[in-house]
Amino acid sequence: MMVSMLETTRHPTNMNPTIEHYKSDAIEVLPGDLSLGIILMCEHASNHIPTQYDNLGLPSDQIERHIAYDIGAQAVIRKLSVSLGIPAILTRYSRLLIDPNRALDDPTLVMQLSDGAVIPGNAYISDQETAHRTKTYYTPYHDGLKQLVDRSLDQGKPPILISVHSFTDRWKKISRPWEIGILWDKDPRLPQIFLQALAQTRPAATIGDNEPYSGRLIKDSMYSHATSRGLAHALIELRQDLIREENGQEKWATILRDIIQNIQANPKQLKLLHSQQNFGSYICPDNPATR
Predict the structure, then answer these.
(1) What is the mean pLDDT of residues 87-110?
(2) What CATH number is given to the structural domain containing 141?
(3) Where are the beta strands (DSSP E) in 11-146?
């Protein structure tokens, strides 16, 4: 079980910073050293749909599209985790089943229509089936991430949270110019470091600041696990045509690795990032946890 694997009980004997590899039907945790104070996340890592769902009534070519997962993001996360020696948590199911980057009361939690594709298996989903998918897939991801964060906090080091996603190179027949986007809400600590580093090291690149999406999403993963707990964080969006193949995945993993390693070598930045600070949120200003 997940709890026994991560052993998050607050007890002096639970100070081992080593996270072991773990895999279940819902999630995979990549091994790493929590004492480094960074946790990687990938909410849309997989396009896997269990056989009993019969691809939710979709033809197989639709499951290969962006509607099912963030193409290339999982490979980038794996390369980062290995090269930096830091733990990561990934989903092992398609977001078409249920989207872990949405609040439970979000109407897009289980998509019935996505980028022009009707999802037959979701069209008339019952409350009972939604509850089953929540328990089987959604909750293990959030419980696992919370346990990683709790364990890092137990060791006296508020962790930095970094999530990797990907976006299509075109939207409604319009080309998207950004190679990479840094998404964030109100906490500028990590996003500004990434944006400045990318501007300095890749001056010819088109870098999105809350583009092509906004990081101000009500009760998404970053809000739930970082904003509400005062942890430094950033969501990184990479354009899919740049990371579809292995050479592009390696290139962008190296770019991100170098930025993170520079942060690790900067005591002033680390002191800023490894602290819990309540910056609040533009999207939920009335929530006491984020004021």
Answers:
(1) 97
(2) 3.40.630.40
(3) 18-19, 22-23, 27-30, 32-33, 38-42, 88-91, 113-114, 117-118
